[in-house]
Amino acid sequence: MAAYSFQSFGRATPAARHAIPAEDAIALLKSGAAKDGSLLGYGNGRSYGDTCQNQAGSVVDMRPLNRVRAFNAETGVLEADAGVLLCDIIAHAAPHGFFPAVVPGTQFVTLGGAIANDVHGKNHHRRGTFGCHVESLTLLRSDGKTYRCSATSNARLFRATIGGMGLTGLILSASIRLMRVPSLDIVEKATPFGDLGEFFELTEAADQANEYAVAWIDQLAGGRGRGLLFTGNHAEHGLHAASRAGARLSVPLQPPFNVLNRPFLTAFNAAYRWKKGRSAAPRQVGYQGFFFPLDGVGDWNRLYGPKGLFQHQSVVPEGPARHAVPALLEAARRAGQGSFLTVLKRFGRVRSPALLSFPRPGFTLTLDFPNRGEKTLRLLAELDRITIEAGGAVNPYKDARMGAETFAASFPDWPRLEAVRDPAFMSDFWARTAKKLDERQGAAQAAE
């Protein structure tokens, strides 16, 4: 298998050195011969960092396991292989009036990846995370056994596998509950705000009145944090069949430099704000443009240049957010680094069943930056510091470089996942964070 096919979406970390087909990994696991740290499931490579990489072992190509096994058109419960893409689930369920209860910013993620990362969407305030809608999953571990896991059967494994970043074994299939919708189309409204204070005033009412809410921030707008608050609800009348998934445009070649420079970003932000914010009237839009706007441009991550990009997503509690979010934006401005896509939204209080889950009550800010080496790494470390001091957390599946201390502060329950991690499974992320913490704890205990 070609290594270039098994790269993270951020492309700031090395591509996988070794990859094996799912059928080979399944046979190896069933035989009980898988070596420690030798495997990691790989979906469609949409994680930005190294949670989907295992340089010391092999990644397992799950994409051929892509069957929708069953669908109940009355209840909306769908069972599918772990390698099925979200776009295929949408296409299968839409004619029956159902849609995934939670979708991330791309439809090109696998079912297994959505579970392993416990992804979230624009409606966390109402529906929680993806894991909240998982009925059951089938997990193959290196003891050779296949476990059917749910909230009532193998519950410990169930909770650890949701949000467990692929470390508890190989997810083979899952059953999820979809939600009934009147149509796929969205009635969208864009409300301009002049600064972050105005955004914070708007967001509570926006969440109460709408299924979906998310803000775009003009990160280069002189420190005020102006932007657009997008709200949406499924239209009563509209599209009932999924449109064909695929990019209308593409970036066919890798530019030799970062195209998304400051002059470009300034012009883009001005044009985007004018286009989207020129009318306050609600408008009916297609679901792909509302949920997955960047999916329309194939290989858009190439625009960041050959060194790739880093994405930083943080969440901070509601009270500190009013100081922390402006501080995060100001840190990026001071560093002279512009974020092409800056997204701010509010997480609600719907709890995930996951042992480790990134979303928690508060506000989450997402920034992405071209990889400019040490300069960018210093900025990301500063963003980590601001986040942790505000009592927040940094998102692992968007990360490619956070330190072990930042991870521990973000997820103090990490030892509980380590306790049920399948020894045959390891990722580069876990090796540089949790395993280092585990080794330090072991050394400290030995020295006592």
Give a brief description.
By secondary structure, this protein is α+β, with helices and mostly antiparallel strands.
Describe the structure.
This protein is α+β, with helices and mostly antiparallel strands. It folds into two domains: 68-180, 2-Layer Sandwich (Uridine Diphospho-n-acetylenolpyruvylglucosamine Reductase, domain 3); 186-403, Alpha-Beta Plaits (2-Layer Sandwich), CATH 3.30.70. 30% of the residues lie in helices and 22% in strands. The chain has helices at residues 22-31, 86-93, 111-116, 124-127, 155-161, 196-209, 262-277, 287-291, 318-334, 374-389, 404-410, 414-420, 428-432, 434-447, and strands at residues 19-21, 39-42, 58-61, 68-71, 77-81, 98-100, 134-140, 146-150, 170-180, 186-193, 212-217, 227-234, 249-250, 283-285, 297-298, 309-316, 343-347, 362-370, 393-394. The strands form four sheets. It has an eight-stranded antiparallel beta sheet, with helices on both faces. Strands 4, 5, 6, 7, 8 and 9 form a six-stranded antiparallel beta sheet that branches. A hairpin with a 5-residue loop joins strand 7 and strand 8 (146-150). The longest helix is centred in the last third of the chain and has 17 residues, at 318-334. The protein is globular and about 60 Å long. The mean pLDDT is 92.
